[in-house]
From TrEMBL:
Cross-referenced CDD domains: PSAT_like
GO MF, one example: O-phospho-L-serine:2-oxoglutarate aminotransferase activity
Enzyme class: transferase
Gene name tied to this protein: serC
Protein's name according to its UniProt entry: Phosphoserine aminotransferase
Subunit organization: Homodimer.
Lineage: Bacteria, Bacillati, Bacillota, Bacilli, Bacillales
Cofactor(s) in the UniProt record: pyridoxal 5'-phosphate
Organism: Psychrobacillus mangrovi
Length: 364
């Protein structure tokens, strides 16, 4: 059987689709990795074979994401969620302020953790508007004595994303890019730190990528547990303890795949085309489908929409029967959501677009 035909139209929000080419390569290399007589999972993280994979992944990430030389790239564990605590633990002293821009559930979770360490405050929030939009840059005021400003670049649950980032001057800017990292080129130098769980755009779950500027690292608090200190991982090239070796290998292969596709500029073009075929159906549906995000704040990665009550259930049932997976909205908000991460092929998005048109024609 043609393996391509056995693959679902996978719109899962995370963990999510991986490139078929990467899965096939991993399968080929699983039992006997490049003549070593063992799989990646069975070898020492101190072996030269693993070290090459590890350093290769870091180098490729730096190159593809145009990360300047004064940044460190780390592979941590604990997911993006542990970063919600590690950031204030490392950078927010008792009594010190930190500004949080609230654009959804993940921002809320990050904010909650910071309260345990210092005095975070909300510099802007679109909660009153049901997180349908990103605040306008000119409406955000920065406190000059804030230890940092934190934002969520793409709101996985509400389906909104930042298209321009704020200029916070001398205040360090930190971004949770879990659901849109490497979906498009960005100016990394605007940020003191970027972090992302790998399981949406970069690989399997279990690895968290942290990109952090060296001068910002120097301001970190030192009297904290070893495993929760960024400097531990910097000093040991993320090999202080056993890292998630298989996940790092997969991440490296996903980066290879991005490179083979022509890098981020090509990936962006593809992502824009993928999102467009679905947003176009919403926009041309005369209100049959209603997008949750305001058009100027739309995410390229998570397309959220609703259909009138009883038809929504029907849509999800029929979509499932037609081979579409993961279209249910997040359990906290309901509705429908199509996550169109890097590895989701255009054909899957086109098929969904066609299905949506047919569904409307049939039920309107
Ligand atoms: C998925 C997600 C998280 C949580 O990631 P974990 O790795 O499960 O902790 C955090 N932030 C954003 C924006 C996400 O999409």
């Amino acid at each position: 059987m043609n393996q391509t035909n056995t693959r679902a139209y996978n719109f899962n929000p995370g963990p999510s689709a991986l490139p078929l080419e990467v899965l096939e390569k991993a399968q080929r290399e699983l039992i006997n990795f490049r003549g070593t007589g063992m799989s990646i999972m069975e070898m020492s993280h101190r072996s030269s074979t693993f070290e090459e994979i590890h350093n290769g992944a870091i180098a490729r990430l730096k190159k593809l994401f145009s990360i300047p030389d004064d940044y460190e790239v780390l592979f941590l564990q604990g997911g993006a969620s542990l970063q919600f605590s590690m950031i204030p633990m490392n950078f927010l002293k008792a009594g010190q302020k930190a500004g949080y821009i609230m654009t959804g559930s993940w921002s809320e979770k990050a904010f909650k953790e910071a309260k345990l360490f210092g005095e975070p405050y909300q510099i802007a929030s679109t909660k009153e508007n049901k997180y349908r939009n990103i605040p306008a840059l000119q409406d955000i005021q920065y406190d000059l004595d804030a230890a940092y400003v934190h934002l969520t670049s793409n709101n996985t649950i509400y389906g909104t994303g930042w298209h321009d980032f704020p200029d916070t001057g001398n205040i360090p800017l930190i971004a949770d890019m879990s659901s849109d990292i490497m979906s498009k080129p960005i100016d990394v130098s605007k940020f003191s730190m970027i972090y992302a769980g790998a399981q949406k755009n970069l690989g399997p779950s279990g690895v968290t990528v942290v990109i952090i500027r060296k001068d910002f690292l120097e301001t970190a608090i030192t009297e904290i547990p070893t495993m929760l200190k960024y400097s531990t991982f910097v000093e040991n090239n993320s090999l202080y303890n056993t890292p998630p070796t298989f996940g790092i290998y997969m991440l490296g292969e996903v980066l290879n795949w991005i490179e083979d596709k022509g890098g981020l500029s090509e990936i962006t073009k593809l992502n824009e085309e993928k999102a467009k075929v679905i947003y176009d159906v919403i926009d041309r549906s005369n209100g049959f489908y209603t997008g949750h995000a305001t058009p100027e704040s739309r995410s390229l990665m998570n397309i959220t929409f609703r259909i009138a009550e009883e038809l929504e259930k029907q849509f999800l049932v029929e979509a499932k029967e037609a081979g579409f997976v993961g279209l249910n909205g997040h359990r906290s908000v309901g509705g429908c959501r199509a996550s169109t991460y890097n590895a989701v092929p255009f054909e899957a998005c086109q098929a969904l677009s066609d299905f949506m048109v047919e569904f409307q024609n049939k039920h309107q």
